[in-house]
Specification:
Helix content: over 70%
Structural class: mainly alpha
Number of domains: 1
Subcellular location: Membrane
Distance between the termini: 45 Å
Mean pLDDT: 82
Low-confidence stretches: 229-242
Strand content: under 5%
Shape: globular
Radius of gyration: 20 Å
Keywords: Membrane, Transmembrane, Transmembrane helix
Largest sheet: none
Protein name: ABC transporter permease
Membrane topology: Multi-pass membrane protein
Number of strands: 0
Main location: membrane
Length: about 280
């Protein structure tokens, strides 16, 4: 019995790593994946750092750099959702059952690959931020509450994976998928606190309430709350009553977790393996 279990585990492990390598080759073979994961976030970081950073004090510049670290994690949405549609339309996935590989194992390999590649993109973005911020950014690192910061990074990536899987399971047309994911992507980066400082766009109560429906807001505000610098945690916590988006960190943790659970539960009922044309 134990030998059979070991053989089954070994076979599944080999299938998993085979799928993982196959997904990796497919990702790096298509220029879209590396472009949106590594190049586009760096472009936004450099551009907006010099455009919005002029006139800011050191705290504002640090806030800008820290928030933009999340961009690679969010851009997973623009790569994974179309990739799922492509895989659904592929001959490989249509015949995967005949190979003895479970489709759930394929999804697990897909999720784990994009989670790790998302971390690599954020690390690359972090190195660029170090080069741009130099001394002011380095001096700020010891003041960060790293537990909240890492949780914010994980939430960003997992939320992007969850949304991409939901959309990829619902649609089969690659063009429609790419257009939809780009709309969600730009809506998220501009109204979640990643690209723009929240005080710039929360100009009315309606807009502020609407931003609570954007899942990435909970991840980006975790990054803001993790920073112990003037004008960040204070402004979004108690110092400024007009921008009291959250009053405690637990609200961010619970809110982000509920969105993750919601997306995966809905995906479980709506995901379609068969691509209907």
């Amino acid at each position: 019995m134990a030998k059979n279990r070991f053989s089954s585990f070994k076979r599944k492990s080999e299938n998993y790593w085979g799928l993982f390598k196959l997904i990796g080759k497919s990702f790096y073979r298509n220029p879209r994946g590396p472009l949106f994961l590594y190049i586009v976030p760096v472009f936004f970081l450099v551009l907006f750092y010099f455009v919005l950073g002029n006139g800011m004090d050191n705290a504002g510049k640090v806030s800008l750099l820290s928030s933009y670290l999340l961009l690679p994690g969010l851009t997973i949405l623009t790569s994974l959702a179309p990739a799922i549609v492509e895989w659904k339309n592929s001959v490989f996935l249509k015949r995967i059952d005949s190979t003895g590989v479970n489709k759930s194992l394929f999804l697990l390999a897909l999720w784990s690959f994009y989670f790790l590649v998302g971390l690599s993109g954020i690390f690359f973005q972090f190195l660029i931020a170090l080069a741009l911020g130099n001394k002011i950014f380095i001096e700020h690192l010891p003041t960060i509450q790293w537990g909240y910061f890492i949780l914010g990074v994980f939430y960003t990536i997992i939320l992007a994976i969850a949304i991409a899987t939901l959309l990829g399971g619902l649609f089969s047309n690659e063009g429609v998928m790419q257009g939809l994911t780009m709309m969600i992507y730009f809506l998220s980066i501009f109204l979640s606190g990643i690209m723009l400082y929240p005080t710039l766009y929360e100009t009315s109560e309606f807009i502020r309430i609407f931003t609570y429906l954007i899942p990435q807001k909970y991840a980006s505000f975790l990054i803001l709350m993790a920073q112990d610098v003037k004008g960040l945690a204070g402004e979004f916590n108690n110092a400024n009553p007009n921008h009291q988006d959250f009053t405690a960190v637990w609200q961010l943790i619970v809110g982000g977790l509920l969105f993750i659970i919601f997306f995966f539960v809905i995906t479980n009922f709506t995901f379609k393996w068969t691509a209907k044309r």
